[in-house]
Amino acid sequence: MSAATAETAEVLCKRFGPGRLPGADNRVVGAGYAFATAALSAATVFVVVTGFESITKHGLAAFGPAHGGIYMFGVYAIPFVVPSAFIAGAFTWAQRPASARYWGAVGGIVATVLTYIIATPLTISGWYVITLLHPEWTMSSNLPRLMMLLGIVGFLLTCWLTLPVGAISGYIHERAVVET
């Protein structure tokens, strides 16, 4: 990433993005905001990329259960992944070693992996509640195995996008905080 691109992203984050939210000037809280924003962005890109054909064919109706596809995992996971990313980002930056140089990208990857660990049981629990509300949808009664399987599958399906986005978000966040 060029220095000009990173600088532009830092300015945009401070002016229009999470930099304007309460507590964003705190390194830890700001990291939470940065990773929540990154998670929302990555999930949105995942939904659009994996559901492009269905979305263009069916429009907004593609988000109904009749047109379910792999992109629907992203749609249903967003309410759980975004808060999980906030927690993971804040926790990761709170644990930052004082002597760590170039922490941004490494911390970004750590926070991204931690997001999967936090979000998987929350997402599965949410899907379980949805199946209770919609009995026509089925879910295995073996929830622990299902959580592990969907967590691994979710990681494998999305890591191509989330790991680079996490590294870039961490890099930009660290630069923005150091310069303030």
**What distance separates the N and C termini?**
21 Å
* Radius of gyration, CA atoms, in whole angstroms: 18 Å
Question: Can you write the helix and strand succession as a string?
Answer: HHHHH
How helical, in percent, are the residues?
A: over 70%
Spatial shape: globular
Low-confidence stretches: none
Helix vs. strand class: mainly alpha
Tell me the count of domains: 1
Mean pLDDT over all positions = 77
β-strand number: 0
Q: Strand content of the residues, in percent?
A: under 5%
Figure out the total of helices. Answer: 5
| Major beta-sheet overview | none
Describe this structure in words.
- Helix 2 packs antiparallel against helix 3 and helix 4 (103-133) runs antiparallel to helix 5.
- This protein has helices at 3-15, 27-58, 71-94, 103-133, 143-179.
- The longest helix has 37 residues, at 143-179.
- It is an all-alpha fold and 180 residues long.
